[in-house]
């Protein structure tokens, strides 16, 4: 008897070959880390970091939630840094790994794929952005809910199609879901920082196994490596190692737009290492 191709299951993961059900590409959007207050102050006051990229301190109000952090903006990706104690639900060392899609309805497709493995643990949320003129639609997200605190949470995001036009009235918005369009008002092309192209995270075995499954489900290549795994998505490589004393994102690899002098900048407990056309932040 012939089995319809939409019912195929490969290696325990649901395969999608149904018309209209193709998964969108899933990109790195940004990552976040929580550092100690002294390191936070060193980052935000550093002339070396300011020379690297457009930086800003931003306070965000989104529905019932609000947070403030220090931001380092690239062409399509950005870095979000919090001071421990400044965001109630996040602890020193906590981090976030935030991915995004650039096509309408992409998050709904991602959620459907995640549900085939994780069932009712999959959430879908709509987050408004509060502005001076009132709340406006901002982000739709999905991910796997957790019963307790996570050292590194993972989410998949989709920008509302009308958000950029609402935030930048009168501006030409050709690609409203594009990361590059989103960052075009904040990115400084004359600064060296282009994008985050690699991350290293330390996770316990259970969290690592869940993340590997999530990334396989959304189309990333995932290969075992050492005591963890290596996952490759569009223009991004994630290396997961077994956690020791600390968990979370421990390093970010940067692509630079033009060469810079080799140097190491100490920013409290954080280090910025620059070498030619690449650099990295080391958080622990």
Task: Write up what this structure looks like.
The protein has one domain (20-282). It has helices at residues 37-44, 47-52, 106-118, 163-167, 179-183, 205-217; strands at residues 9-10, 13-14, 27-35, 54-62, 65-73, 78-83, 95-100, 122-131, 134-144, 152-159, 193-203, 221-225, 228-233, 236-242, 248-267, 270-282. The protein is built from six helices and 16 strands. The N and C termini lie far apart (56 Å). With 284 residues, it is α+β, with helices and mostly antiparallel strands. It is 18% helix and 47% strand. An eight-stranded mixed β-sheet has the order 4-5-6-3-7-10-9-8. The model is unreliable at 1-19 (pLDDT under 50).
Characteristics of this structure?
single chain; 6-stranded mixed β-sheet; 16 strands; 18% helix; disordered N terminus
Structural class: alpha+beta
Q: Estimate the mean pLDDT confidence.
A: 92
Largest sheet, in brief, is: 8 strands, mixed
Continuous helix count: 6
H/E series: EEEHHEEEEHEEEHHEHEEEEE
Identify the overall geometry. Answer: globular
Side-by-side strand order of the widest sheet: 4-5-6-3-7-10-9-8
- Can you count the beta strands? 16
The share of residues in extended strands comes to over 45%
Q: How would you summarize the topology of this molecule?
A:
Elements lengths: L8 E2 L2 E2 L12 E9 L1 H8 L2 H6 L1 E9 L2 E9 L4 E6 L11 E6 L5 H13 L3 E10 L2 E11 L7 E8 L3 H5 L11 H5 L9 E11 L1 H13 L3 E5 L2 E6 L2 E7 L5 E20 L2 E13 L2
Parallel strand pairs: 3-6, 7-10, 11-14
Antiparallel strand pairs: 1-2, 3-7, 4-5, 5-6, 8-9, 9-10, 11-15, 12-13, 13-14, 15-16
């Amino acid at each position: 008897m012939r089995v319809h191709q939409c019912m195929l299951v490969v290696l325990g993961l649901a395969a999608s070959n149904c018309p209209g059900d193709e998964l969108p590409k899933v990109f790195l959007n940004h990552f976040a880390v929580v550092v100690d207050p002294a390191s936070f102050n060193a980052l935000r006051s550093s002339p070396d970091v300011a020379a690297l990229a457009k930086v800003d301190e931003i306070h965000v109000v989104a529905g019932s939630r609000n947070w403030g952090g220090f931001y380092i903006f690239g062409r399509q990706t950005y870095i979000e840094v919090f001071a421990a104690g400044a965001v109630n639900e996040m602890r020193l060392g906590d981090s976030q790994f935030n991915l995004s899609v650039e096509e309408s309805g992409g998050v709904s497709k991602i959620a459907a794929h995640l549900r085939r493995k994780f069932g009712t643990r999959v959430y879908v949320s709509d987050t408004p952005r509060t502005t001076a003129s009132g709340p406006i639609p901002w982000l739709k997200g999905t991910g796997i809910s957790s019963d307790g605190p996570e050292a590194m949470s993972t989410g998949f995001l989709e920008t509302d199609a009308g958000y950029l036009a609402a935030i930048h009235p009168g501006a030409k918005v050709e690609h409203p879901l594009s990361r590059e369009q989103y960052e075009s008002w904040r990115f400084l092309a004359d600064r060296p920082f282009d994008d985050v192209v690699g991350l290293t995270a330390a996770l316990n075995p259970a969290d690592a196994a869940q993340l590997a499954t999530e990334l396989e489900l959304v189309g990333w290549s995932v290969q075992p490596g050492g005591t963890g795994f290596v996952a490759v998505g569009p223009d991004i490589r994630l290396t997961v190692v077994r956690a020791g004393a600390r968990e979370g994102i421990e390093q970010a690899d940067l692509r630079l737009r033009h060469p810079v002098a080799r140097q190491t900048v100490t920013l409290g407990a954080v280090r910025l290492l620059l070498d030619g056309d690449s650099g990295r932040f080391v958080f622990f």
